[in-house]
Design a protein that fits this description.
By secondary structure, this protein is mainly alpha-helical. The chain has one domain. The protein has a two-stranded antiparallel sheet. Helix 4 packs antiparallel against helix 5 and helix 6 packs antiparallel against helix 7. It is globular. It starts with 12 loop residues before the first helix and ends with a helix.
Length: 269
């Protein structure tokens, strides 16, 4: 991408994807995917106090990512430098064994393997929700989107050789992570799922929307992680989700006016 005063343009796949309000439904899924890695959970959630102030952390993350996608290059790079500096200070060890990781396993928030999993969970979730609820992505569009996410990864300290080269490599990485033994939902991560993602304190009139978001989150989680989180699912619900996302993609989203369909930063851009 040529040097401009922004990291991304209106033609960037990343902007196109996260401009859609409905892609916000990918956030809870991404959070649960990230927390399913016990070492990443210790470094990015437990150590940083995110469990005590989860919504403030989510808001900060959203603000930084929005700045990277839509803001001036200088502001985005300034914000990500601060995040990298914070990551360098996060060091510790697992207090208890978790899956294949024994007690005493060291963690660091700038560990490339952990950073990659955090980035991959964001990318995989956004691509999935966009594909299901907005419009199917071609192979070339998915490739372009992953190259954009790699640019995001570089802003947070990852090198190209520390990330999958192309979308096929990314898909293999995700498949290997989901089939391997690195992911293990701890009791603390399960508490995060119930208390933070699935049951946040929202006004009564917002409960129906929350239940809808929860339904989508649970349905789009990989089945192995869904079971580890103790979240129930069945074929009937899968059919409802498939029909609902198809209806949203074909009928609801195309008819929405821009002021309802797009996030504020996208409308301003």
């Amino acid at each position: 991408m040529p040097m401009t005063d922004h990291l991304f343009t209106d033609q960037s796949m990343l902007r196109r994807i996260i401009s859609e309000q409905v892609v916000g439904l990918s956030g809870p899924r991404a959070l649960l995917m990230q927390a399913a890695h016990p070492v990443a959970f210790a470094g990015f959630f437990a150590h940083t106090g995110a469990l005590d102030e989860p919504y403030e952390r989510l808001n900060r993350t959203a603000r930084v990512l929005g700045l990277v996608a839509f803001g001036p290059r200088a502001d985005a790079e300034r914000a990500t430098r601060r995040v990298r500096a914070m990551h360098r200070r996060v060091r510790g060890e697992l207090a208890e064994p978790a899956g294949r990781f024994p007690a005493g396993t060291p963690y660091a928030a700038d560990d490339p393997e952990l950073l990659l999993w955090i980035l991959a969970a964001l990318a995989d979730s956004a691509l999935l929700v966009y594909d299901r609820c907005v419009t199917p992505l071609s192979a070339a569009e998915r490739e372009a989107a992953w190259q954009d996410y790699k640019l995001v990864g570089r802003q947070f300290g990852l090198r190209d050789d520390q990330m999958p080269a192309g979308i096929e490599d990314f898909d293999r990485y995700m498949a290997e992570m989901l089939a391997g033994d690195d992911l293990h939902v701890t009791p603390e991560a399960r508490e995060l799922a119930v208390g933070i993602v699935m049951r946040p304190p929202v006004p009564l009139h917002m409960r129906p929307l929350l239940e809808l978001a929860n339904f989508v989150t649970v349905g789009m989680l990989p089945s192995r992680l869904r079971r580890q989180y103790g979240l129930s699912w069945d074929p009937a619900r899968a059919l409802v989700l498939r029909g609902g996302t198809e209806y949203a993609r074909r009928v609801v989203v195309p008819l929405l006016p821009a002021r309802m369909r797009l996030v504020p930063r996208a409308r301003a851009a």
